[in-house]
């Protein structure tokens, strides 16, 4: 890549040099020289809407030139006071005031000093008049239908261009067609008029766009009288007019547009055609317009001269006209005289040549006067050149060459300056230059010298001039250093010397590091529709970073700065991202870097991958009964080799239009012999596969039909469907359409009892099922099924063993015993049923059991049968998930595929006591500095006679250390609460409570709480202050037997006691019989409702009084004489549990002994039975986490961890 960058750098630098120094060296303004006109006006038009009109003439020279003007060849003086002139300039202005028409004419500017006179080309100043149609009376025109008509326009003269329109008085255009035509002069022609042409408002409009003027001719009236006898006639030309004869001549200037027009009257309307006599019309430049009436040739050349013929024709005849086209040209320079600087005694020559048609004449002038008036000794004047010999300073002058013909005049000034001067270096001394390593450096030394001078360059610290192939000095003094290195940096001197003297300047050169680029990834291969990301990593000299600019291009065409408008291609500096890549995005991507001194580029070839195009031109050959050769042509692989072809076929009579895969072929092959089945009308298609995916399927091939044949295979999966005793319903998988091989498919079924010396029974069917009656239940049979069609039978079938229909077992097992494993698990043993009494295939045994009563309360349970099945031949099974301390009945039965047999006699057994479940809840209902009162609910399942509770507690606080575990055995099971004393103040405790029976204690339920500090008065823990302004809802008690205390208070009161405390007990129906309580009495419920209503009434009165500004007497006393103890409770307790600052207590993540294991097995039916688990209710031991769980019966408190208190009567 480096040589490429270096070559590009050389090219860029050379182009820069040529652009900078291609101009001819001008004489410095400090050197005396003849005048040179540097600016002049062309044609100037005095538009009426301009403020002023400026005619320009600017010149330079030394001494400063003076200016004079001529108008129409005569001296022109600025005598009109309206003319505005400028100092040291020949430009003057004519204000648009009053009449200025007398300023119209052709002006010429002369700039002169003591050395010579320069002359401008003629400047035409046009003062256009306002065009107007003459006032005239236009007589109405009355003609017969079918007559030809010409409506003249005769537009006024004015500043071109001129546009003519024919419209009616409502400014609607007169429609033109083959019959109606407007000529270039503006006249409106009718080949033959019709009644619809009658109107009284034919108006001709002439538009002069440069003057912003439109003028209208007086309306013309045309009346067309209808005629019953319209005579048809042959064509007659109206354009060109008859008086011009059959031929006319037209002169056109080279490069302009040639317009030839023909229009003929006649009936029917004549058609116009064009041709060039002796040649062809110029292709690509000629067009026929206006329904063929106008021939237009653009950019006329000399080859277009000659004779053109228009032919107007209808079926009655023709009319022709020939145009002789002459192509001419104004003068143009072929060798324009060039200014030159000479030294005394030298020789020179001025050349002046021009071409045109007719050939231009050339005249020479010196300082604006004919050359004959200024003869110099030794000068030789020819029409096309002037030669000078032994030039002297008095030869200094301005020479004018003028070429002219009938179409115009051109003028050229050439300065001849005879000067002798020491070299003048125009480049500043001490200029700084910079380039990059490997590029060319250009150090400038522009100078002017006469006579000619010699230029040399050298390094400041060296004596010898620079020499070698790497150095080149141009005529203008510029030094080029090729393939620069870091050693080329330094200061250089430029010396210019001629016969008069020598001069020098210095230049400084800095060498920078070359810019480098790397585009990544290199040559990526990306699937279609994916995203392409290219990154351009650049590295350039630190001095050039400010000028570094990156750009992206694809295949030589640059991207827009930010990508495409649709956002699919995004360019972000060094990154180019293309979303949803298409095949058109494939190509060579180039990242280009440009700095102030160099440029670099790097490319990457992006290959877009896509699925192949579908294969083409499928052809079938070598057609056989069971095979055919398929050949195809591969489609485009889209840059990813085809790995394989998939050949699919269609021909399934049952599913027409469905294509199935037949075979696969390696990607390098495009032909395959296909195996075929009989009696199929095949059609094939091919799919190409590459690494991107599958192509679209090819177009289907021709059809290929195979002849029928006998079946090649027999049915499979022969089986017996569930049937009645002493019958077999034989079923099998029918042959598919592609396997039938011919018409008339049937199945021959044969069978006989297995091992019996009898003949095979046979039956032929058309469907795929057969019902056979048998003399025995569940007897084995040998069965065969063979496929046959109209052309023969399939291969000999294999025999399969099937059994006749089953019946229900007719005897029940005998239960030997039930062994109690634990309170929830028993083992049942039974005798098996004899094989001949099963009447089928034994699938297993089924145990049915149901609970009859609870041994705890003696209550009888309704019969709810649970089922557990054991597969296979066995005589025992385990029954899990039983209720402890209960009585059960149990039966066993056998079952087969037909169903279940009779049940055994019920077996009665009892389960022993077990450990209880955990209590339903545990709450701390009251705390003090050293005491706490706990309340709990009974377990849902007691699993035996409750003997008491085990209460444990320990200090946990907010540390990883836990205190010693304390045990309390509560032997009064009917007491659901306990008061703890001798606790530490301001200490956090964790409490564990287990329910116990004679078999042990169950799982614990836990709760955490903190004691109060010194000086605080114990209160019940609060869930939340009750806002009485909110809508009240009845309190829901979720847990049977749960106890709750409801405390009502306002949020703003400071009392340490609530207004009213009500204790209510609710119990579920489950324990209503065990614990008789007054809460079930009607009088008690009525009393509680009355107390609740009185409480709400009292709260309402309090709030109303408070809102009116009153205070309770108790509140007033507390405000006047605050109790220290009460204040302490307010500060500490309510501060902890206030509505605005409720913070939950941190619960311990530890359980009592990490994970407490139940004392008995948590049995599951999954471990003992096979299915039908949904038939039982599994009530085994508690499984799952219990620490920190929220009790169902709790009244939640918006984030507070305060326990809700039990309701007790």
Automatic annotation (TrEMBL):
Known partners and oligomeric status: May interact with L1CAM. May interact with ITGB1/ITGA1 heterodimer and ITGB1/ITGA2 heterodimer as well as with ANK3.
Family membership noted in the UniProt record: Belongs to the immunoglobulin superfamily. L1/neurofascin/NgCAM family.
PROSITE patterns reported for this sequence: FN3, IG_LIKE
Organism of derivation: Gorilla gorilla gorilla (Western lowland gorilla)
Domain Ig-like stretches: 35-124, 128-223, 235-328, 331-417, 423-510, 515-607
Every Fibronectin type-III domain range: 614-709, 714-807, 809-914, 918-1015
CDD domains reported for this sequence: FN3 (cd00063), Ig (cd00096), Ig3_L1-CAM_like (cd05731), Ig4_L1-NrCAM_like (cd04978), IgI_2_L1-CAM_like (cd05845)
Membrane-topology descriptor: Single-pass type I membrane protein
Gene name per UniProt: CHL1
Gene Ontology terms describing biological process: cell adhesion; cell differentiation; nervous system development
Xref: InterPro entries: FN3_dom, FN3_sf, Ig-like_dom, Ig-like_dom_sf, Ig-like_fold, Ig_I-set, Ig_sub, Ig_sub2
Disordered: region residues: 693-717, 1131-1164, 1190-1209
Signal peptide: 1-24
Biased composition, class Polar residues, residue ranges: 1150-1162, 1195-1209
Entry's Gene Ontology cellular component terms: plasma membrane
Any single Pfam family the record assigns to this protein: Ig_3
Keywords: Cell adhesion, Cell membrane, Developmental protein, Differentiation, Disulfide bond, Extracellular matrix, Glycoprotein, Immunoglobulin domain, Membrane, Neurogenesis, Phosphoprotein, Repeat, Secreted, Signal, Transmembrane, Transmembrane helix
Name of the molecule in the record: Neural cell adhesion molecule L1-like protein
Location within or outside the cell: Cell membrane; Secreted, Extracellular space, Extracellular matrix
Record field: transmembrane: 1083-1104
Domain of life of the source: Eukaryota
